[in-house]
Design brief:
The complex is a heterodimer of chains A (424) and B (224).
Chain A (H helix, E strand, L loop, with lengths): L26 E7 L6 H8 L2 H4 L2 E7 L3 H9 L5 E5 L1 H7 L10 E9 L2 E5 H11 L7 H17 L6 E4 L5 H12 L9 E4 L5 H6 L5 E4 L3 H7 L3 E6 H4 L4 E7 L1 H6 L1 H19 L4 H9 L8 H9 L1 E3 L6 E3 L4 E2 L10 H13 L7 H10 L2 H8 L31 H6 L6 H5 L3
Parallel strand pairs in A: 1-2, 1-3, 6-7, 6-8
Antiparallel strand pairs in A: 3-10, 4-10, 4-13, 5-8, 5-9, 11-12
Chain B lengths: L13 H15 L6 E5 L3 H13 L4 E5 L5 H8 L3 E5 L5 H14 L12 H10 L1 E5 L5 H49 L3 H15 L3 H16 L1
Helix pairs in contact in B: 2-6, 5-6, 6-7, 6-8, 7-8
The chains are: A alpha/beta (424), B alpha/beta (224).
Chain lengths: 424, 224
């Protein structure tokens, strides 16, 4: 990619008007997405004029599965895509079917995930562990551990928990939370995949006992009276990147300036999304059938972090439940890509290797972020990597040093047995 | 529409792995006939595909219509090829299944035929994705995928034509009704009524059928 000039005309803080100002040569960028609240930055860029100001027309294309997102990027039906943060990492490691290596120069924000258990299961936990409903995520996991043990002794079938994709923050967060309480996700329970829009139905049909998915599905399960939210992403690891902008390397090579302009537009859009005064407008935009197709009030409630966690009406306030820009939420930290790698190793999806390290580093591109946004109003971190879990701690209290991945993985008492056997 | 083709080389769930090992040997030596699983909620589309496979001499075909117990059914069926429409969100469920089976069995999931750009393109446009078990000859796979592509395309064309025919018929009916209303209320001949509708449409830069719909709606309001 060549160093290219980036238009700074009218950048920084001023919000562009939604009306059309510029009819200059327009660059069409096709963006694949899955309808979830964490795609807010893309919607704002398209609807609030941030892309237009950079001479870009964003074509947001809805899809139904992460497999499709990956493959349509590979087949050039999309130029860029709304992706799970582990997807570029998995692609560089050649994991999954059709692993098309892509990368991310920009994270789309943090938060939004939560773990919801069936109300029935939660009431069992209350009965067994004496929960009064005010407990935190770890206490809830420990109570779940008691139920798991109790069920085992009673000879009942293991509980079934769903996430949305094998290479997803949901998978790693759900597992992290379970294991923090001593539950082995591979042997004590059954982990399965259910696509996000089907999670609530699957729980209603009692096909699953719990799920980890992004907004708005958790709150919908609670409002329907079938689910109890027991943990959020912020409880497990607040810094975790959630969705990222996945970029096709061929497209990036052919369109370096468009990529730069796109990142500038998304950066401005992300700041706009974080400002509370814009939340009503943002919720209205996202409520449209072309995007989420759910009531804007519901989206607004999610932005506020006021979550109804129990059908009995209990509300919990989660600070920074969704964060689109602040605290370097858009910076593609190499250390976070490596943390994802550590979890892939931990659960036996891949063996740890030096070659793997290099591949993972190719997935997250802080160098591009830095180059494109240098000199703009956005503060850019000085380093690409840091020790994770110091300011914002993991639920198990350990920190992650990107230099000691194997040690970090070995330090988990619960991990896939396969991990012990590889590369020794 | 979302479109893609995947050729996938991997066995299914752990329970199917034992069966798979004997099976892949057999299929390599050509002893067991090819077994295909179709994951498709639309019964008509599935039937069209089954027909096509029959014509191609593949008789061992199972259709999975619901997501319930999909994994268990797949491991029971133990297919050599899985064909799944790309608009089916269950693709992510399959992805997990391949991932899990990898732990107990052999790795490598890949495009058997990435080099054949036109084939991939055609499949992508038709919305076919096929997962193919290791050990199959490429030409055989290609024949199946080609068939699925043409069948999917034929189905889409059929749907489209049906839709167009329906909406054309509906439009014609509306125009007829609007003409009748105008003839009755304004005492016009059929030609005059039609000319009036057409002139109004041209003046307002709208479609004839929209004007006709307005006339019909207005008349129904006045009647009450």
């Amino acid at each position: 990619m060549s160093g290219d000039p980036v238009s700074r005309a009218g950048s920084a803080d001023d919000t562009p008007s939604t009306t059309k100002r510029r009819r200059a040569p327009e660059r069409l960028v096709r963006v694949g997405f899955i309808p979830l609240v964490d795609m807010a930055v893309l919607v704002a860029a398209a609807e609030q004029g941030f892309a237009e100001r950079e001479g870009i027309r964003l074509l947001l294309m809805k899809d139904v599965s992460w497999s499709n997102i990956r493959d349509r990027l590979a087949f050039r039906q999309f130029d860029v895509a709304h992706m799970l943060s582990p997807m570029p990492v998995a692609s560089q490691l050649h994991l999954g079917s059709n692993p098309y290596p892509c990368f991310t120069p920009f994270a789309l924000g943090r938060g939004g995930n939560a773990i919801t258990l069936s109300l029935e299961l939660y009431r069992d936990m209350q009965a067994l562990a004496g929960l009064d409903g005010s407990e935190g995520a770890l206490a809830n996991a420990l109570a779940l551990k008691q139920v798991v043990e109790h069920r085992r002794q009673a000879g009942k079938k293991p509980l079934v928990f769903a996430m949305t994709y094998p290479f997803s923050s949901h998978n790693y967060e759900f597992r992290f939370w379970l294991a923090a309480a001593g539950i082995n996700p591979d042997t004590d329970v059954t982990m399965t995949v259910v696509p996000p829009p089907l999670t609530v139905d699957a729980m209603t049909a009692r096909a699953i006992d719990g799920f980890c998915v992004n907004a708005p599905w958790n709150i919908i399960a609670v409002e329907k009276g079938i689910g109890r939210m027991v943990a959020t992403k912020a409880d497990i690891w607040p810094s975790a990147p959630e969705k990222v902008l996945g970029v096709s390397p061929e497209w990036a090579d052919e369109n370096p300036e468009t990529l730069s302009r796109l990142v500038v537009a998304l950066d401005a859009a992300a700041r706009w999304c974080d400002a509370r005064e814009n939340h009503t407008a943002l919720a209205d935009m996202m409520a449209a059938p072309a995007y989420l197709g759910v009531p804007s009030d519901l989206i607004l409630q999610l932005f506020s972090g006021q979550l109804t966690v129990d059908p009995d009406g209990r509300v919990r306030h989660v600070e920074n439940y969704l964060r689109f820009s602040g605290q370097s939420a858009n910076f593609p930290w190499i250390s976070q890509a490596l943390w994802i790698y550590s979890q892939m190793v931990r659960w036996g999806q891949v063996a740890y290797s030096e070659a793997g390290l290099a591949q993972v580093k190719a997935a997250y591109r802080p160098d591009l972020y830095r180059r494109i946004l240098a000199g703009s109003g956005t503060s850019v971190p000085l380093h690409d990597s840091k020790v994770e879990g110091l300011d914002e701690t993991f639920i198990d209290g350990r920190s992650f040093s990107p230099d000691d991945i194997q040690d970090y993985v070995d330090g988990f008492s619960i991990r896939a047995a396969a991990n012990a056997a590889v590369d020794e | 529409m979302a479109r893609n083709l995947l050729l996938h080389a991997e066995p299914w769930t752990s329970s199917a792995v034992r069966a798979f090992k004997t099976l892949s040997k057999d299929s390599q030596s050509g002893q067991r006939p090819l077994r295909v699983a179709i994951i498709e909620e639309n019964g008509i589309r599935a039937a069209i595909l089954v027909d096509g496979l029959r014509e191609a001499g593949i008789l061992d075909v199972e259709v999975i219509e619901t997501m319930t117990n999909m994994l268990r059914r797949l491991s029971t069926i133990d297919p050599d090829v899985i064909i799944i429409g790309i608009e089916n969100p269950s693709r992510d469920v399959l992805e997990q299944m391949f991932q899990v089976s990898k732990l107990v069995s052999r790795p490598v999931a890949m495009f058997v035929d990435r080099s054949d750009g036109s084939m991939i393109q055609a499949a992508v446009e038709a919305g076919v994705s096929a997962y193919v078990v290791d050990g199959l000859r490429k030409e055989r796979v290609k024949a199946i995928v080609d068939m699925a592509v043409s069948r999917f395309n034929a189905f889409d064309r059929l749907q489209r034509e049906l839709l167009e025919a329906r909406s054309e018929l509906a439009s014609r009916k509306i125009v007829e009704r609007a003409k009748g209303i105008l003839m009755r209320t304004r005492r016009l001949s059929e030609e005059e009524a039609y000319a009036l509708l057409r002139q109004t449409a041209m003046n307002e830069k709208r479609k004839l059928v929209d004007i006709a719909q307005s006339v019909v709606t207005a008349a129904s309001l006045l009647e009450k």
